[in-house]
Amino acid sequence: MRHRKFTFKIGRTSAHRRSLLANAVCSLFKSGRIKTTIPKAKQIRRLAEKTITLGKKGTLHARRIAISRLRQPDVVAEVFSEIAPKYEGRQGGYTRILRLGRRIGDAAELCFLELVEVDAVVASADGEIAVEEVESEDSTPEVVSEEASEETAEKKTEE
C-alpha cells in the first residue's frame, strides 16, 4: 500500500526538482516574495520553513544541512543571521500563499509566496485592529478603531 507516500514530481527528474526548489527558496529569501504556481509554492514553502527552523537552531550542524539543501552559502548566512532571528518567538508559519488567479497561456493557478512580516496585524471580533510589534522597543500595541479610520478617509476625500 502507498498510503501517505507523496512525491512532488511535476514532470522533472529528481535532480532538476531539487535544483528548482533550492533556487526558488533562495529567491524567496533574497526578495521576500516570489510569483509561482500553487503546487510549486506548496513545496517551496515546505523547504523554506524547514530552513528557517534550522536557522533558529543556529548550530554548525544545522548550517551545514541548510547549505547542502540550498547550495548557496551566502543565502544561508543571511537566513541564519537576519531572517531566522526575526521569527524567534514564532512556532512555524513563516510564509503565506496569496492566490492570484489563472495564467493566460496555460491556465495554471498562480500565487505569491511571501515571508510573513514580523509585525502582525490582528483583527478582533469587536471590529478593532491591533498592531502587535514583536521586535520593537515599545511594547504597547497600537489600537485603531475601524470607525475612526473610516472618518479620516471621508475627511481626506472631502478635501
Distance between the amino and carboxyl termini? 69 Å
The proportion of residues forming helix, as a percent range, comes to 40-55%
> What is the CA-based Rg, rounded?
20 Å
Q: Which ranges are low-confidence, i.e. pLDDT below 50, for 5 or more consecutive residues?
A: 121-125, 135-145
Major sheet attributes: 3 strands, antiparallel
Tally of discrete structural domains: 2
* Overall mean confidence score, pLDDT: 84
Instruction: Give the C-level CATH assignment of the largest domain.
Output: Alpha Beta
- Topology-level CATH name of the largest domain: 50s Ribosomal Protein L17, Chain: A
Structural class: alpha+beta
Strand arrangement, largest sheet? 1-3-2
- What is the count of β-strands? 6
Shape designation: globular
Architecture of the largest domain, according to CATH?
A: Alpha-Beta Complex
Description:
It is a single chain. This protein starts with 13 loop residues before the first helix and ends with a helix. The longest helix has 20 residues, at 38-57. A hairpin with a 4-residue loop joins strand 4 and strand 5. The protein folds into 2 domains: 14-116, Ribosomal protein L17 (50s Ribosomal Protein L17, Chain: A), CATH 3.90.1030; 121-158, no CATH class. Helix content is 48%, strand content 21%. Helix 2 (38-57) runs antiparallel to helix 3 and helix 2 (38-57) packs across helix 4. With 159 residues, the protein is of the alpha+beta class. It is built from 5 helices and 6 strands; from the N terminus they run αβαααβββββα.
